[in-house]
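Q:
Got a chain?
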Amino acid sequence: MFDTSGGKKTLVIGAMGQIGQELLEALYLQKGTEAVIAADIRAPKTPLEGKFAELNVMERDALIDLIKSHEVGEVYNLAAILSAKGEQHPELAWDLNMTGLLNCLEAARQTGLEKVFWPSSIAVFGPSSPQAHTPQYCSMDPNTVYGISKLAGERWCEYYAARYGVDVRSLRYPGLISYKAAPGGGTTDYAVDIFHQALQHGRYTSFLDAHSRLPMLYMKDALQATIQLMSVPRERLRIRSSYNLNGLSFTPAELTQAIQVFMPALEVSYAPDFRQHIANSWPDSIDDRYAREDWGWRPSYSLEEMTREMLGNLAPTYGVNLMTEKAGTS
């Protein structure tokens, strides 16, 4: 049975991005294709199962018109410029990341949206934040425009929740790993690219050093967490900034070893670039007790299980036959 939220539609902004494409699939299964509207600044290359609307989240009036005309009840705003690209285009990153969020919050206030989801990031932490088991509340001094915009965004979410009663919900995503979507310009993208390069060329050059431990999350777990959070009754949620979310923590060397179980000949070298400075300011693990206590969050994938499934799904693309009998094939 589909959850159609009382006939209201669900709008996914930035639907053609790394998270959006897979979130759409999950929402289609949960709600039905007719209840979900995908929106992005450009049309998809291939037709979607459900409705698509061309939308620039920077245009508030157009967003409000879309919400009203399609009777939208909840919005997922995924439009953003990520950490590495943000350092190359800082003003553009700030403008999109902040204005897009404010437009969604203001649209929610004006139209009475039931819920808004907006992703934050571990990039809100910085050099003064505890590096191990970083708590929900601690010193935050991000040193990237992406992190600065996310921290400012968290404060706006709290403000709109307290001042106007907007039901806005958020997760501090760690690095996300998926076989379905290409890397999106983040500092943790090595953990996706290494699989493609391993299968295509048998070698990889990492832009982070071998021992850069960072929090990561398999995309299936990220989608599970997102949909769970949006399904929890409002009164159970204590956090109106953004919930810490933990899954896996590993280094490039540890991920290499996990892949070499299936591809022993894989060669990996290290040539750290400007992204190393970003990674050095981020935590190596996250304390997500509030998510576990408030809505029962538990990740499902270990490093071994994630590696097996990534290789099992990507190998056919490159004509590689691997013994990954437990890998998913969806």
User: Anything to note?
Assistant: Residues 90-111 form the longest helix (22 residues). The longest strand covers residues 72-77. The two ends are 22 Å apart (CA to CA). DSSP finds eleven helices and 14 strands in the chain.
